[in-house]
Amino acid sequence: xxxxxxxxxxxGRFQVTQRITEPALExxxxxxxxxxxxxxxxxxxxxKGSGFYCTDNRKASFHEQKKPAATEAKKxxxxxxxxx
Length: 84
What we know:
The protein is of the alpha+beta class. The protein has a domain at 3-38. It contains one helix and three strands. The chain is rod-shaped and about 85 Å long.
């Protein structure tokens, strides 16, 4: 569930964990004064799963292992002397 930031003129800033479908708070849970929901800056989105580029959320060592093996095979094919 996301955490929303609110500002109360009397109490100051506070955070509330709410479902996305829940309406925004209108009154402070502490003093009952009107509150304002603030736009949060702490957004940490991580895309994982199928449907994204294979380079996303992968370690660099995974790609380093794949690339040299394919290039080495091509080099061996071109360097091999022909027996005629």
